[in-house]
Amino acid sequence: MLSPHWYVVHELLALLRSRERRAAQSPWDARALQARNDAAYTLCVLMGERTRTAAVEAAERHLARSRAVVLPNVALAPDQAL
């Protein structure tokens, strides 16, 4: 199964939270509400979830797993390049 790159998830989650703050500050602003809904929908599709809450939780779990993976810092000589 494919999973999204951690940076894309991180950026989309930050965008959603930013748009949620904006929508909360201006609940009468239809454009702010639509922007929040668009970001939530995109996160739902990306994470394969049906609700905003489930998508946010899945994104946070995905980011936690991504941070747990530590790759060794190995420098290859030019003749050993893959």
Summarize the structure.
With 82 residues, the protein is mainly α.
Give a written overview of the molecule.
This is DUF5133 domain-containing protein. InterPro entries: DUF5133 (IPR033457). This protein has 82 residues and is mainly α. It has helices at residues 6-25, 30-47, 52-68.
Which key phrases capture this entry?
DUF5133 domain-containing protein, single chain, 3 helices, DUF5133, mainly alpha, 82 residues
The backbone outline, from C-alpha atoms, is: elongated
Radius of gyration: 17 Å
Biggest β-sheet: count, sense, barrel?
none
Please provide the count of β strands.
Answer: 0
The ordered string of helix (H) and strand (E) elements is HHH
Q: How far is the N terminus from the C terminus?
A: 25 Å
Helix/sheet category: mainly alpha
InterPro entries: DUF5133
Protein name: DUF5133 domain-containing protein
Organism: Streptomyces mauvecolor
Task: Show the helix and strand layout.
Layout: H1 6-25, H2 30-47, H3 52-68
Helix pairs in contact: 1-2, 1-3, 2-3
